[in-house]
Amino acid sequence: MGVRASMSISLMVENKLWGLISCHNYGSEARVSLPVRELCRSLGETCSTHIEKLLYSARIKVRKPLSAAPKKTSPTAFINASSSDLLNMFDADFGFLAIKGEARTIGKLTAYNEAIALLQYIRQRSFTQIFATQNVKKDCPTIDFPTGFSVLSGMLVVPLALDGIDFLVFFRKSKSKEIFWAGNPHEKDLKVGQNAYLEPRSSFKRWSEQVVGTSREWTEDQAALTTSPLPSTPLSHYPFPEMLRPEGQKSKFNVLIAEDNPLNSRLLETRLVKRGHNVRVTVDGQACADAFMRDPGGFDVVLMDLQMPLVDGSASTRLIRAFEAEAHTKIQTESPPNRIPIIALRALMAGF
Predict the structure, then answer these.
(1) 56, 194, 236, 258: which is deepest, by most CB within 10 A?
(2) Start and end of every Phytochrome chromophore attachment site domain (predicted)?
(3) What CA dihedral angle connects 149, 150, 151 and 154, to 10 degrees?
(4) Quick one: DSSP state of residue 207?
C-alpha cells in the first residue's frame, strides 16, 4: 500500500491496551525526533487518563440508583419497586426474577413465547455462574423452540442460589447493526486457501458488514454489577455466623447487613433467614450506622460491605465505634466497652 514508515501510540486503560493511534508515512524517508516522540507519548498518556476518567464516571452513574434507593427490608421489594432503574442499569428490555419456582416479570413482557422458552431453558441448565450472550441461537443450541427466536437475542443470567434454582435474568431484543472494517476482514481467508500463508491486505479501504440476529453486547461494567460466581460447596459446610457464638449462648442472631448490591444482600438475607436468624438490610454505610445507633442492643453482629458509594464500610465502622465509645463514657465504668462484631464483606463472599 506504499507505506514507507509507521509509528503507533498506545492507549492504556487499567493497565490494558484499550486502543492504538497508528501513524503512516507514504512519502520519502522521515525520522521522528526524540522530542516529538516524547510529546506523542505524553499525548497518549493524557488521552488514556481521560478515557479512564470517562469510564469511571459512567460506572458511578450506573450505580447511582442503588445508592439512592429507599431503604427496604427485602431486596425483592427493591427489585419490584425499582424495575425501571434495574433495567436501565443493565440496559435491558425486560427480565424475570425467579424465586422458589415462581417467576415475576421485571418491566413490560414482550415476545411471550420466546421468553418462556428461555426461562425454561435456564431452569433446566441451573446456572451456578453468571452467563451472558448476545446471540442465544449460537450460544444456546440445545434450546427446544422449533419456531426459532425472531425478537430476543441477548440474555444475562445471574444466579441467586448455590443450586441455580433462584436467579435473575435480563433479556435484550435483536438489533441489526452495521460494522465498519478497515478493509475486508474475509479477504485473508481467500489468501490462506490459495497460498497457504497470510499476506498483507491490499487495502484498508472502509468495508461495511450488516449483522443481524444479535443484541447489544453485555459490557464488563454491567457484569460487575452482578454477584460473583457461586461456589458448588454446600452452604452447610460453612459455620457462619455460628462461629461467633460462645459456648452456651443463643444460636439465633440479630444480623445487621450493609450492602449496596441488591443481589448480594438478597443472597445473604435468604441464607441467614433459612438458618433462623433475624436480618435487617441497609443499602449504605450511613444507613447501617443510623440503624445501629437507634437500637444498639438490637443487633448481635454486623456484616459490612467494604466498597459502597457515599459512606463506605470503613467510614461506617468508625461511626459505630465512635458511638460505642461515647456511650461507654457516659456510663462511667471501668469495664471495657461492648463492641459489636463487624465482619467485612466482599462480593466474593456472597457465595458463602
Answers:
(1) 258
(2) 1-45
(3) 50
(4) E
Q: Residues for the chain: how many in total?
A: 352
Do 251-351 and 1-64 fall under one CATH topology? no
The CATH code of the domain at 251-351 is: 3.40.50.2300
40 CB contacts (<8 Å, ≥6 apart)?
7, 9, 32
Give the three-state DSSP class for 342.
strand
Contacts of 251 (CB under 8 A, 6+ apart): 242, 245, 276
Neighbours of 183 (CB within 10 A): 15
- For residue 228, report the phi and psi dihedrals to the nearest 5 degrees: -75, 160
> Would you say 291 and 282 are in contact if contact means Cβ atoms under 8 Å apart?
yes
Strand pairing report for 278-282 and 254-258: parallel
- 25 and 6 Cβ atoms separated by less than 8 Å: yes
Every domain of the chain and the residues it spans? 1-64, 77-175+219-224, 251-351
Q: What is the pLDDT along the chain (352 residues), one digit of tens a residue?
A: 677 888 899 999 888 898 999 888 887 777 888 999 999 999 999 999 898 888 777 666 666 655 555 554 455 555 555 677 788 888 899 999 888 778 888 888 888 889 999 999 999 998 988 899 999 999 998 998 888 898 999 999 988 878 888 888 999 999 887 787 777 776 665 455 555 555 666 666 777 888 888 998 887 766 666 544 444 433 333 333 333 333 444 468 899 999 888 778 888 888 888 888 899 999 888 999 999 998 888 898 999 988 887 888 889 999 998 888 887 676 555 555 678 899 887 654 444 4
pTM of the model: 0.49
CATH class of 77-175+219-224: alpha beta
Mention the CATH class of domain 1-64.
Answer: alpha beta
CA 216/CA 174 separation, integer angstroms: 8
- Assess contact for 191 and 208: CB atoms under 8 A: no
Q: What angle do CA 281, 287, 288 make, to 5 degrees?
A: 60
Distance, in Å, from the CA atom of 184 to the CA atom of 216, rounded to the nearest integer, reads 23
